[in-house]
Amino acid sequence: DGRIEADRPCVGVGAVSIGLRCRLRGGVRTHGAPTEPTGPRRRARTQKPCQTYPQRSGWADVIEQVGRSLAEYPGCPYRIHECALAKALGLQNGQTLDLLMTAFKAGGQGTRRRTNQVWVSNPAPFQDPVSIDDDSQDNALHLVRSTYGSGSSTGYYEEATPDAINVRAKYYSLGLHLDPGGRRAILSFKKQAQIVRAATGTSTRQPDSVNMRRRAQWKAVFSGGTGCSDYIKLDIPQLANDFAEDMGVDLDYHDDEDGELTDACLQEFQRELKRLLHCSYALDGIDDIIKRISPRRLTTSASGTTSASGGGEAEEDDPQDNMEESSDEESSAGGRMSDTEDYLSSDDEARKRRPKRRKWGSELIPPAPHEGALESNMDEDERSLAQENLLNWGAMKKAYFEEGRYEEVGRLEVALQGAQESLELPVVNRTISQMNGRVLSKDEYEALTSLPAAKLTRYSYNFDRLRAEIIEQTPTFIPFKLLSGMFLLQYHYSGELYNSNQGRIDHKMYDGDGGNRVMTYATAAVFRHIILSHHISITTFPLLLCSFAVALLGRPLETKEFFSIRTVRNHIVRLNIIDDYNISKEFRKVFTETKPPYGFLRFWYTATDDAKQKKITHHVTLRSGDYGPRSEEGDDFDPDFNIRPFFDSIGVGPSVTKDNNGNARRNFDDICDVCGTDYEVQSRYNGNASDNAAIGEGVKTCELNMAYLKTQWDAKADELYGEIRDIYYNHADPFHCCNLAIQHASEKGLGETEKGDSRQFHHRQFMQTLHDLASVDPERAQNIAEKVLERCGVPKDSYIIKTVRERIQRWLVNGRNAKHILEGLELELGDAHNFWAEWASEYLPLCSGWMVQALNEVITMSGSDEIAIGLQFEAELVDYFEVTYQWHAHPGELSIDRSGFRTMELPHLLFGYIMPWWETAVEEPKKCFPKTFRRIEILKAREEEEAAEAAAARMEAGDEAGEMSTDDVDEVEDDEAPLLADIKREQIMLGIQAGYDEISKLYQRMLKAPMIFLGTLDPEVGPSIFRAILALVSEEGVDLDEQTTEYDDGETWEIPSDKPATWGKFEYNGDGETRPLEEKIWYDLMKSDSEFIAKWFKLLGLHRGVVHRDLRRFSHESTAEATKKRDPESTTRLRDFYDEYPVLFSSYRAMFALMPSATRIVESLHGMMRHSHDAQISLAFYNAKMRYNVKMDYEMKEKRRVYVRKRAAAAKGGATKSKPAKHADRKKTQAMVGPQLMELIDTYSAEAISSLPDDIKKKISIKEINKKDARTAERKLALQKRSRDEQLRPARVQNRGEVPVDELLQQGRSTRTKHTDEHAMRPVREENSAIDGKLVKTYWQRVPADQFKMEAFRVFPTFESPEAWKAGKTKMLKKTGEVYDIGAHMNTIKEIADKTKPNSLNDTDVSEMEKYDILRMFVKFEQSVVGSQNESASSTAKKRMKAIFQHIGREIKNSQRFKSSATYAAVEEEEEED
Question: 1190 burial class (0-12, 13-18, 19+ CB within 10 angstroms)?
């Protein structure tokens, strides 16, 4: 008596529909032909009687069997695409799977809330709701569902495709995979997607050639097809190396030299990769899941009924009323509320789910779970009202997204919330009008307020859905977004304002309006960052600003909306003045206002160096500073131990003179400029770090500074703890020392390259030649390399050509380059020659000119054992240098996040690595240079074998001739030259010794005062050094028990009372007492420096009473292995010393902590200057730029690098990657710039500006800035140079005498240029040029064929022959070598003229003749008819052009319009008219 109205899509399990969405028209539902209803039509969702559920048990069987199959599945390490899982379960598609998951999530089907309805719980153990979307806890299914991908809704695919990974879809994690924290441990979706794209050739990170091959072959590999050998041979190993670790496959390599992956390992990886592709729905079929679930798989009877394992009959009604509205929700984007997620069991749970109200602050009640969106859950009268007011979800969505009725939808949202809050109509209309909306009528508002609260809540839910859709569809680059708490109406009103011409830029970038607008400090800070950090010219910046305005705002800027170049420059100067003040304040706080630990005064230093940019030598001066402790420091920062150092650029530019004195004067002027009248801060300057050649510069700078302070500030400024401070701490950069040692070792052992000789047979010339060739056309060079590798059966991506210029004194670069070249030289290419020889031979046919000779030289040098040994020695030298380089690149113990301040740790580097390495290199060189000596041994074995074979051959030849005896052979061998291997061994040893001698010489300074005091920090030799120091200080008359408190400034400190009663043993009177060897060697070394050691003992304040306890305790410290206090293998040696001797450590820290341990930072500044040098930019601006880059910009970049390092360390289990961290190579670090700039802007807030002193406020006024000359520094330098010249001129005149101006002028009058002297020879030169013109093939190719033969015989009489008479032009020009080959005949004439071959053309003796006399004998140029014709034609053309010039010239000569004065006057008149 009923029929089915199948107006909704059916979803099925297997081949039949379960959960058929239908509406009954009365009676019992059947499957078959539709029949007319016997009674009135009833609404399916509101009038279903209980007896319409007779087949609930069939649906229960489906749930039970699918649930048990999933629960018993042991697990999968990958996320399974919804379509893949649906097919594995025998479902029709992912939408059907959603229906099942909804039932599991709810714990049953039906509804509990409506009348005349029933609720049917799922069978045990699934009768309770299953939290399938929560990965923090397990559930009965051992399943978690997540949504990934881009797009607004899920796409269901009928067939598997790699594109499925790129579309928004739900993924399921099956089985128990829990980490120690209780959360699921499973491959991340990002990594899974990356593997799928890489395997299927759709990754953007791979070359196009690789993607093309993989796209063509990947399906055949995993489906058993053919034509996929390249994928298996090339791509499977590469994929395994890249992803096997992520997929849990252990890599197993062969033990041979190739070290390739084993076949078993590759097969295991291939099986695992296939499994991942199945799970990702790139391939059809998940074998292991199908095998486990197929016994429980749902089947379908032929009649169309649904059964599970053979049970169940057709259902009469929809088995999941609550799924009808939720299925679409389940398939939509994350972030929207789903009806089926809102089964509430208590009021508390309901309150937790309530969304936040946007404007008036109270809470909204969530919609009932069975009602959801209004379009399908309302009565007819309610539906009409909802449609009329756009409250219906479908109508609302259409009106907003398709019809663009933003204002109508937005005002309705405000009205709805007002109705919920029972607000008066005027209040609501006032809110709407403030957002430029149309106010409501009384009837419109009453229609809303008359509705029940529950209905209003459901309407509100539709707006939540709309907001989610808007947020999801808003492009990420749009600057203005819909935020929480913002009405839709407000969102669109603000958006219109942002894209209008109402001055949005003015409000943000200016203070004030009209004619009194001033750029804000925040805007200036951002502009300065863009210009200085990214090396953008100020003149270019306004163009960029206007371009970005169009990109972000969608409209051009008007001239009033951006700034002139002068305005930008002035406001950058403004910020620089503020920064100068802030940095000076930091220095005052740390060095004069903060009480140092135990009263030890702290000191700061400079680091300097010279560099040449475009023939101008610039001197760079940096100073070191310390921020001191900050409130935001973590628990790892100890203010008494750690430091927060920074570098501050205080001077960039040329010095008056380029020597140490000129640079010292420049340093002193820069120090005075930045310190101003802070004489106490200036008095804490104590030395300089530079290379070895500039040590005198630092000494002179300190002397100038102290003399100035004594006259300007305090006559006792040079006193420190009662000692005169007339010696200072000037530090020779140890990084530079290592560089010099490497240089001496390389040049002494392998020889120097000769400047200007690009043909030298030398390994470094080999490096330079390769760079010259590869840099001409890098793409072609790499293509040829790939062709060579492919021809030799080697993967073409196994070697990438990367070359750099060979650089003198850049040995780190040279060594790394040598390593990479050796990798190519050592490639196994089968029977072929070495890689570089094959590469050059392949390249040769494509080149010409100098490249031909260079490629031939590459082939020659690539086969030389001497070149290979030289490259190997360079490569192993750089292994040593890499360690010291990395050591200097890391912050160390004291500094939390800044490298370059490891001076107190330098003895650990010296004693723990540098000295042992060089000692081992001299005594056991094979340990430090194993590959180099291995090459030498191989060379020697081959040479000895060749020598033996040659001797045997000579012996045999002598016996046959009866002319050589054994004694004769021995005598010949004695006269032979030594083997090349022995020579190279001796050269390498000489090089190692040269490096050893250089490092020993350079590091002597570190073993003298004051650096020797830092040697006491070493846990092994430190106690012995300290006792030797005590002995020398005592011998110099210093009272070790003085314990003065004069310099404590009345302060007292808590010192432990465990001071020993006596000193440790350090004095030996010679009466049978012998100083231990470990102390004697240090005592003897420092004996000559004892006076300075005693002086530094007092300058360090070690005669003060506060440190007496630590000195005595330290003098007792043992160096015996069993009784050592500190662990020599500790990675926290400074902290260990601090824990034992805190006061002594504080003394060292105050003196040495801020001394730069290397000058690499200055080298970095040279690179910045080379990159952005412009002679038109003032020195003041350059210095401001360097200051910003060194301090503020560096700190922002370093924070981003720290994030990258932490990510890398976490990915590698604590070990960071060897390659340097990039601060802007990913979106996360790029996005970090925004918050960093916001933090920087706070530095220039209104409160900060108002707190500036009055003199600074006056300086930063634009009026004062405009008064200043931007080139003040240049003018000052010019005056200094003029003064220097006036002082220098008398001395030079006295030494050299007066300049003989008259004599030189007379000499100039009588001297002629070379061209003038040879002018008389002009006719002869013209004849020679004509002869040369006839001896090139180009001329003869232009001769007409009918005149060719006669022209050739006239010009070259010796060319005429019977054979030549028979040949034509084509045959004569063809290169055959026959007598009629005109090219061969011309070559013969040239060779005779050059006297490289005898005269074979006639009987004339040419031995005494000049070159062109010989050529005139064979080349009769004057008899050329064709040449005469060409000259006549050229002369005619010249005459015709002369006539044109004469005619036009007469006209213009009388014209006035091109005179400059008339032209400028015309321009001025036009401007006045405008």
Answer: buried
